[in-house]
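One such given next:

>
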Amino acid sequence: MKNVSVIFHSGSYDRVHHGLSIALSALLMGGKAKLYFTHASLKYVKKGVKPSEKIVVEGDEYYAERYVSSVEEGHVEKLEEMIRYCKEVGAEIYACPASMAMLNISRDELIDEVDEVIGLSDFINRSKDFDLIFI
């Protein structure tokens, strides 16, 4: 079974959604998943950010509008639910300290699902037997 490590850099909702879908697929097929949130993606693991503030989608205006309405109508799963489910089925979740410092985010502001705040080199070292995906 495939083990995946996903580095989330983008703050685009659809990109993060697809990365979480990959991680969940691996986990549900008996693999392992490690998730690393950095730069703009940190908003998805920060407490107190309103769901409407999190939905940013790259692409043309029509696609962005359709994606937002699909989330609001329940056709696309909410990222906070996907992150919670990833954790429930065994994902390890990490946040980048350099990006946290740049964005003035403290450890206390992160959701409980985040296991640790670790540097990128540490994350890559922990992922040596995993397929690495950058989103």
The radius of gyration is 14 Å. Strands lie at 4-8, 33-37, 92-95, 116-117, 131-134. The domain at 4-134 is CATH 3.40.1260.10 (Hypothetical Protein Ychn; Chain: A,). The helical segments are 13-28, 51-54, 61-72, 79-88, 97-102, 120-126.
